[in-house]
Amino acid sequence: MIKLKRLNQSATIVINAELIEMIEETPDTIIKLTNGTKLVVQNSLDEVIELVIEYKQRIHLGIQKNIE
Predict the structure, then answer these.
(1) What is the pLDDT of residue 66?
(2) Is the alpha carbon torsion for 26, 43, 40, 21 positive or negative?
(3) Measuring CA to CA, how many Å separate 17 from each of 22, 30, 33, 50, 62?
(4) CA dihedral over 67, 4, 61, 50, signed as positive or negative
(5) Domains of the chain, first to last
(6) Residue 67: is its pLDDT beyond 60?
(7) Degrees (nearest 5) of the Cα angle 32, 45, 5?
(8) Average pLDDT over residues 10-36
């Protein structure tokens, strides 16, 4: 799971990184999930990629991290 910030809201959302199909920056960052849902977030494309990489590394190494 990765924590992101919605574009036009102060709300923080947590999404399953395994469900990300595509990320597009137009300049807003749009994340398309495998179920067809599209999310627009404040995080840059590079930030989202880094969060996904960190998530995958934690899974691979078996490291638990609290999402606060």
Answers:
(1) 59
(2) positive
(3) 11, 14, 9, 11, 16
(4) negative
(5) 2-61 (2.40.50)
(6) no
(7) 75
(8) 95
